[in-house]
Model the fold of this input.
Amino acid sequence: MKDKQFINPYNFVTLDKKCAKNINLLENKADDRLTGYIECELENLTELFIPEISENEKNEGHQKFHFITKDGKPYIPGSSLRGVIRSVFETITNSCLVTADDDSYFHKRYSDPSKPGFIVKEGNKYYLYKNLNNNLKNVDKNKVGNLQDLSRVSKRQDGTLRFDPNSNDILVKGEENFQKKSYKLFTLIGDKLTELSQSDIARLKEVLLLYADKSLNKAKGHKHYKTYWDALKKLERSNGGKDSYLPVYYKYINGVYYLSPACITREVFNNTLKQLLKLNGGYDPCDNIKALCPACSLFGTTNLTKNEENITAIGSRVRFTDAHIETTGDYFLPMAPLKELSGPKLSSVEFYLFKPEVNAKYDAYNYDYIFTWDEGKNKQTKTALNVPYVPRLRGRKYYWHHIDFKYEDAYVPLDEEERETKRNISAELLKRHNKFTFRVYFDDVTKTELTNLIYALDFDNPNIDKNSYFCHPRAHKIGMGKPLGLGSCLITIKSINVREIGIVDGKLVYEIKQLDRKSFPKLEFEKNESLRELFELASYIDTSSNDKMAQRRKGYKVTYPFVYPNRPVKPEEKKKLLNDLASHQWFRLNRGGGIKEYIKLTLPKVGFSNYNNIPPIHLNAIEQNIDKDNNKNNQQKQKNNLRSNQYKK
Ligand SMILES: [Zn+2]
Done:
């Protein structure tokens, strides 16, 4: 059975109720301060991959990367270490999520149609109007000739269209595809619906950029909605006149307008990651020098706004050196193609959000609203629940260490027909069990800051209680290929050195004094839900272990969600079924497999409160009926053939 179950490569550490933004750097510092360095050793427990990125390796096809080296030896850049240690430090100290410092939008594609309307600029303001002919007029593609998208047009006697600057009809061609038989005619101008905000327009631009991105992956050039993009730019510059009208599709859901150049489209949500972090307890990146989290205060930040002192950035009081390799010998495995790595799929709300807890039935949810699908076969309309809803983010993302990891499993299997594509890369991996040393310099830090820094480096491994549930050493994940199992690294503190000022022969001298690692208290994590989850996720479990934590994970492969075919696949079918058996199909089937999505399984939580009742953290793979889907594909193909034959006539 376990072969049809899996553990998702990443999971989350739950955010606390409120972020600890309680440090005022403008206040006098009362504590004694420490300056010095920590000497660390790092061992990579699994193969490690930190690519050497050189300018001339940028090409469109399959890329190959060597491990980064200096003077012919592999090393780990200090910046890589710093990023990893900062994010553990953030978790341990209940700090903000500084990596979330962008206004990137969440978005998701839905099948319910939008309504036709117009954006109109009047003075400096934007308004949304209805389209005058509520049901758009269709116009046969063959009657359009060479007319440009968004042209004003009128009909000739024979039904063909001609350019007519004085007409109220605007031709909307939309995205070209060979199945499209007709274009739409929008007609100026119905009732005024609302004033649009700058954020509404910004989200419309994001929709256009998403289409452009997609086309960049497929073919060179930014074709998709280029005309529309240009028209929107003209609208922004316009002061009345014909450039101040632009056809648009819109949806209105729970007080938010979703604009798009197409009828069926992606919705770009009103809530951004930063806003949701703010709503989830103030975990958005710190921006106030009088209310900083421990991580921003120690590691620095460049996000500051609104202070009288005009200080916009705080420097770091910690500095990481590169990690130099101490071992010698044959460092690398031969260059080989890695399995494809997928980027974060934030539209997978079943993994990135908690299931909403509301007293009403619903089918699905997203970053803005909870909804049901309307009954009736042919209707594809969503109805948003009219309930207060603050989407709850799952928290801080961490990758599991694999149990019994074999590096061959990170490579594309040898029997795969096409092993090197432009979607995957080839990598030269550093063999496991190499040892590195590095230093972390700290400057003017409090004892608490130093203590937390030590925990972030070695996860308090020296204080592990072998008889507890948390009996395994905790390790970091460094470099690329984390979902595949690469980059598990154990950090051990070798010495803690503090500079002391003394007076010898009447002169000021610096002395280095060593602090004993054992003199630092044990990190009390047992009663802290977030820390327990962090320690669960960071635990590196030996193959031979069979304790409770190990039992929770052993036997399950750590892999992206997968589907399995309903019957054995013949070798010659493999290529044809590549898409049918791809990872994203798990999400499609988990949402019911149809056009209307109904979210079923969600990512299990790592945490638990009762040692006798530890919930599972694995998910089930889903069976995919490859015969049924093939029939559907064939039917679609036949339809398309029919259509293209019609065009030939
Ligand atoms: Zn912060």
